[in-house]
Structures are given as C-alpha cells and as structure tokens.
Design goal:
Keywords: Coiled coil, Nucleus. By secondary structure, the protein is an all-alpha fold.
Length: 764
C-alpha cells in the first residue's frame, strides 16, 4: 500500500480592495473639478494675453510708421560746366601739347558722358532715354509719404465670451466738433439780444405780464426740481447742480427774484436731506476696496452732497462779497441797487444753516462769515446774525459749536481793537455752561458703586441675570462719565476764552461801551472763575465802582459780580465787602422811578446775594437800614417795581426776625434816624418805623395793597394775613417781571376833569 505524503500548497492570500466612501469620492471629484476649472481659466487668460499682445504690437507698428519721418534719397551736387572745364584743363600738361590736340581733347571732354553722368545710375552710357521713363525715374526719386490718419481714442468695453474664449471689445470715442459748440454758444447771446429788443418795444402792462409769465415758469421749474430731490435724494442728487445753476440767472427781467427763490429753496432742501453725521473724505485704501452696490451708491450720494453744499456756500459768500465791494458783474443782469437785497437773503440762509446744521461739514466756515457780520453797520443784518448766534449757543448741548463760535468772537474783538457793538458780547450770555473742570482727587472722580437693595434682590432674577444687569449698569455709568468728562473739558476751554475776552477789556478798555456787557457776563459766570484771580478781580471792580465814571447799571453789575465771586469759592477768602454795601445803599435813592426802570431786576438780585445768602455775615443794623430805605424807595417807583421791593422786604423780615421792631412805634436805643446818611451801619435805623406801609396800603394797585397789608400784619406765613402759596414761593425778581408795566392787565384809574361845583368851591 503506497504511503500517503501530505502535499502542502501555498495559496496567495487574496486581499479585497475596499470601496471608497461617498465623502472621499465627493472630495476627489471636487478637486478634479477645481483643477479643470483652473486649467480652462488659464487657457482663456493665455489666449486673451496673446490677442492683447498682438493688438499692442499692431498698434505700436502703426504708430511708429505714422510718426517716423521718411528719409530723402541721396543725391550728388553737380558742379557747373564751366568749373568742370577749368579743372580739367588745369589738370592737363598743356605745355607739351599742340593746339590742335588740345582742341580735340576739349571737344571730347564736352562729349564725355562718363564724366558728367550720375554714377548712381546703372544705365549704359550712350543708351537713349525713353520719354516714358523720365517721369517714372523722377517719381521713384521723390520721397514717399504715407497718408497719416488722426489717431482716435478707443474706449474699452466689456468683453464678449465665445466658445474660443473672451473677445475684447472697443469703440471709438465720439469727437464733438468745436464749430457746433461755438454755434450753440452764440445762439443764447443772440436770443438774449432779441428778447431785450422785444422788451423795449412793449408797453409797461405787457412787460409786467411777460415778467409774471416768466416768473411762474421759473417757480414751477424750481418746485419740480425740489420735489424730485426730496422724493429720492440718493438717485436725484445730480439735480442739485441743475437747481444751483439757476443762481446764475441772466434774464434781467426776473434775475433778482429767481436768485432769491433758489437760495431759500436750496437752504430748505439741504436742511431736509443732510444726514445727522459729518461726512469725511475717503482714503485711497478705502477707495480701492470693492464694496456692495448699496454702499457705493451711498458713497456717491455723500460725495455729491458735500460738493454741492460747498459750491452753494461759495455762491452765497460771493453774493455777500459783491455787495460789500459794490462789484458789478459783466453780465449786468443784476443792478448794484439790488445787491443789498440778495446779500440779506444770502446772510439769512447762512444764519439758518448755522443753527440747523451745527454737526455738518463747513460749519466753521459759516460761523466765520456770520460772526463777521455781527458788527455790521446795517442794523437789520447785525441783529439777524446776533440772533442766530444766540440760538446756536442756547441749543448747543455738545459744546463743540459753542467753542468754535467763541474762538471766532475772540478773534473779532481783538482784530477790531475792542471797537465793536455791545450786542456781540451780549450773545455770550446765552452760553449753556453750568459746570467746569476742577482739579479733584482720584477718589472723587471714581464712580461710586451702587449695591442692590432688598426690593431688587427680591425680584425673581437668576444669578446670571443679576450679573448681566450689573455689567450693563456699569457700562452705562462709564459711558455717561466719559461723555460728561469730555463736555466738562470743552466747557472749561470755552469759559477760559470768554474770561480772556472780559479781562482784556477790563485791562485795556475800561472806558469802552463794552464795559456793561463785560460786567454782566462776569456777574453770570463769576462762580466759575478760578480762585487765583479773585483778589485781582475784586480790586479792579472796587476801583471801577469808586471811580464814579460808571452809570448806575454798570456799578450795580460790578457789585453783583463781586458778591457772586464771594458767594461761591470765595467763602474761604477773608474779605469784608463793606464798601460795596455802602455803594448799593447810596445808589438805591438815585434809581430811575419811571416805567423804563430796567435796573430794578439787578437791584433785587444784589439784595438777594448780599443780604439773604450772606445772612451770617450781615449785622442787624445793616439789615434794618436796607429795609427802611427800600420802603422809602417803594413810594416813588411804579407798581411793578413796588411789588418787587415789598417782596424783598418780606424776605428780609423772614431772614432777620428782629426786624419786626420797625413795625412798632417804640424807640430802641439812643440817637435819631438819619435818612440822608449813606452809611447803613451808622444811620440809627432802629429808631424809626415803616410808616410807608400805611401809605402803600391805600395804593390803587391791588397787589401793592395786598403786600402792604401783609407786611403790616408782621408778614405771617400762616393764618388770615398770609399770602397764597404761589405768591409766597416767588422770588422778588420774578414778581417784578410778572407785574411789569408792559404786561400789566390792571390799569390805574384816570382822574377826570373836576365838576363845576368843585371849581366854584375852589374859587370861593
């Protein structure tokens, strides 16, 4: 039995290839597609480059041929025959030759064509020339000139995409013939001449009718352009240029009216379409960046708006300058007498833009123009500009426009050597400055943290919500503090310039008409003056008061300024203002007692600052003296001033309760009351009484009667003799303004003529 041997066979393992996943297939297919797209784009770009290169070479060849000047053919100058014969004879050895041989040689020399002919030609020597060859030979020798055509500028258009690739497109730039332009320019001039000739032939009625017809057409045109711009400013911004072109109206019949209407219309349009932010010019990097269609449209609108606004302001300024220089234009569409009306409208437009657009571009330029006309001799123009500046300062909350205006006013005052109108400085009283930057500790400047109270904690808020609310509150506080600091900085700089103006006038022009305005401004802003200037300023004010050169109103402003200084930061100064009390006490009896008494408001403010707010520094004798003198003054003034004085007396009685001794007839101490003495401390006011109140109790004005009765009852705050709450809470200056004679509804009784019986009794 045969043995079985095991046969081992090695089998090659079969590895199965995994199928690629869908993501891998997707990834590879995307890569292939991108490569195909890149190859196709590269081929298109290369073909386009080749085409552009061929076109460039062709254009370069054409331009080289057209610019290259042709070179003339070479030609030799032929010498005259006589000179040739002489040279030939000189070169011959005539000494060894006979005369016959010499003549033959001369004849041969004249016939020799190889000497005289042009060596450049290749024709045989004795060949006959055809007649037809002569013009061809001359034509060939003449320099050739190619016909030069004017190079036309090409405009490259968008390319066309074909199967082969991108095909560049271009077209010739259309050329406008100058002859047509000249004809078009001459046509309006001829039309104007024809219209002027036709106007001369019409009677006045027909001229007026024609003018009204033209004016109506212009008005409709202005209205149509304005409504189109307001309807869609972004798309119709180019119509501003068309409307602005009407400022140069040349028709003398309606030129003045049309220009005024266009000025006012453009002013109202700009007030409506101008954005609430300042437009800045774009940088080169910003221009190079590709932006959206809407952003590009917005940029074009802003750029067009700023340029048209600038041109409009330049036109207004040119109109004003022509009026000031009395300069007449060449067209003579507007006479010199009409320039004043046009300039007034232009100034009014600038004043409106100054107030309405303090945030927009060119506001500083408008400020310079308007402030320069605040000192204009024409009263109407000056009042208009001062009122515009006053409105601007009142409504300015950010302070930047106020700072720019104050800087320009300071320059104007200095350049005119303090010879300006007081109304220019009166506008500074409208500044909205209540606080300035003061040096404080870092702890005071740090915002105080506010912790949540029990009610806030009780609300159903999660921990994260409370944390977010706290962070938001802290951000709001920091933002407000930063805005407040910037505002304080601007206000401080503005006030420094204002005080610089005031101090310059006090130092260099004390006898100027600006002194009342300066004193009034110092009285308003005295509490904001730096402590370092207090001593010098008080000494200057005291010297002004004691000089006697000031009017009553100016001296009252000096006193008010001094006490404003002492009532604020001046509390730390140990200064006794006795001389100011004495001057006010002396001034009370010389005030104007008529209906035009404008000093009473200042007097009442002085009494409030000097007596009521400084009650701890005022003695009883001084308070009694002022109380008695005010009661005496109340007998001589008008009812409005009388009500204010009685209200001041009521305040004094409440402030100094011991003043009620003047309501009794008993004498307190020794001495006699000296009403003519101007020293309130030594006139013995405690030895008199307020008998003036009994006289005022019979006054014809009901409010005067009421106050006199109230004071005689001891000025009670409660009970039957007390005043109403409204009257008791009003300040004396407010009561004076409320019951001023101009606004008084109560008329005093008019005394009629006496009857006959009284006349006869008087005669008897």
């Amino acid at each position: 039995m045969p043995s079985c041997s095991a046969i081992l066979v090695w089998v090659k393992p079969c590895w199965r290839r995994k199928k690629p996943s869908f993501r891998k297939l997707l990834k590879t297919s995307n890569v292939k597609l991108e490569n195909k797209l890149k190859n196709r784009q590269f081929k298109q770009q290369s073909t386009a480059k080749k085409q552009r290169k061929e076109q460039r070479k062709l254009r370069q060849a054409i331009s080289d041929v057209s610019q290259k000047a042709p070179k003339p053919l070479e030609h030799y100058k032929t010498k005259p025959e006589d000179e040739e014969d002489e040279e030939f004879l000189e070169s011959l050895p005539t000494d060894m030759m006979e005369e016959d041989d010499l003549e033959e040689i001369r004849a041969m020399a004249q016939k020799a064509s190889f000497i005289t002919r042009d060596l450049s030609s290749s024709a045989p020597v004795h060949a006959k020339k055809r007649k037809s060859d002569q013009p061809l030979e001359k034509y060939e020798k003449m320099p050739r000139k190619m016909q030069q055509s004017d190079e036309k500028e090409l405009i490259h258009l968008l390319p066309i995409k074909d199967k082969s690739g991108l095909i560049p497109q271009s077209m010739e730039k259309p050329v406008v013939q100058k002859a047509d332009e000249d004809e078009h320019d001459e046509e309006p001039e001829d039309q104007e001449e024809m219209e002027q000739e036709s106007l001369l032939n019409l009677n006045p009625e027909e001229q007026l009718k024609l003018r009204s017809q033209k004016l109506m057409e212009k008005k409709l045109r202005i209205a149509a352009l304005g409504s189109a711009i307001l309807a869609d400013p972004t798309c119709n911004i180019k119509k501003l240029k068309e409307l602005r072109a009407m400022l140069m109206e040349t028709d003398s019949c309606v030129a003045v009216t049309v220009r005024k209407l266009v000025m006012v219309s453009l002013m109202e349009i700009f007030k409506d379409i101008v954005p609430s932010y300042r437009i800045r010019p774009l940088t080169e990097a910003e221009k190079a960046v590709k932006v959206k269609k809407e952003t590009k449209q917005l940029r074009e609108f802003e750029e067009g708006l700023v340029s048209q606004y600038k041109f409009y302001l330049e036109n207004l300024e040119q109109t004003i300058r022509d009026w000031k220089q009395k300069k007449q234009k060449g067209s003579q569409a507007v006479s010199l007498s009409c320039y004043k009306g046009l300039a007034e409208v232009a100034i009014r437009c600038m004043c409106e833009l100054l107030v309405a657009l303090p945030h927009f571009n060119f506001h500083n330029n408008i400020t310079v123009v308007v402030v320069s006309f605040m000192n204009e001799p024409v009263k109407k123009v000056s009042e208009m500009c001062c009122e515009a500046v006053r409105k601007l300062l009142k409504q300015d909350k950010l302070g930047q426009a106020s700072l720019a205006t104050v800087r320009v006013i300071s320059g104007l005052v200095k350049s005119r050597n303090y010879k300006i109108k007081p109304a220019v400085l009166d506008t500074l009283l409208s500044l909205r400055i209540k606080e300035v930057e003061v040096k404080k500790d870092s702890e005071d400047l740090a915002p105080k943290q506010k912790f949540m109270n029990f009610k806030e904690k009780k609300k159903n808020l999660s921990r994260m919500q409370r944390k977010g609310k706290k962070e938001m509150r802290l951000e709001v506080v920091s933002l407000k503090s930063s805005v407040f600091r910037s505002l304080l900085k601007i206000n401080t700089e503005t006030l420094n310039i204002v005080f610089l103006i005031y101090f310059r006038i006090l130092k260099k022009a004390q006898k100027s008409v600006l002194l009342p305005s300066v004193l009034e401004g110092l009285a308003k802003f005295a509490h904001l003056i730096n402590l370092e200037f207090f001593d010098d300023l008080l000494s200057v004010l005291h010297s002004l008061v004691m000089s006697g050169d000031l009017s009553h109103k100016e001296s009252l402003h000096c006193i008010l300024t001094a006490f404003h200084i002492l009532s604020g930061q001046g509390d730390v100064l140990n200064i006794d203002p006795l001389k100011f009390y004495t001057h006010l006490y002396k001034t009370l009896l010389v005030l104007h007692a008529g209906a035009s008494n404008t000093d009473m408001t200042i007097v009442l403010k002085c009494l409030d600052v000097m007596l009521t707010k400084r009650r701890k520094q005022v003695t009883l004798h001084r308070a009694l003296a002022f109380l008695k003198r005010l009661a005496t003054l109340a007998l001589h003034v008008m009812p409005d001033s009388c009500v204010g004085i009685l209200a001041a007396n009521r305040t004094l009685i409440h402030t100094f309760p011991k003043c009620d001794i003047l309501l009794d007839n008993d004498m307190q101490g020794s001495g006699v009351y000296l009403p003519e003495l101007d020293e309130p401390e030594y006139c013995n006011p405690q030895n008199t009484c307020l008998w003036e109140l009994h006289t005022l109790k019979r006054h014809y004005h009901p409010m005067v009667k009421k106050y006199a009765s109230h004071l005689l009852a001891g000025a009670p705050s409660e009970g039957s003799g007390a005043l109403s709450i409204d009257l008791s809470r009003r300040a004396p200056s407010q009561l004076f303004e409320d019951y001023s004679v101009k606004d008084m509804t109560f008329n005093p009784p008019v005394m009629g003529p006496p009857s006959k019986k009284k006349v006869t009794s008087l005669q008897s």
